[in-house]
Amino acid sequence: MSLAFDKNTYGKLLAEYQPQVINSEEEYDRMLADVEQLIGNKNRSPEQTALLQILVRLIEEYENKNHPMGESSPHLILQHLMEAREIKQCDLVGIIGSNSVVSEIVNGKSSISKAQAKVLGDFFHVSPELFI
Question: Which ranges carry the HTH cro/C1-type domain (predicted)?
Answer without folding.
Answer: 78-131
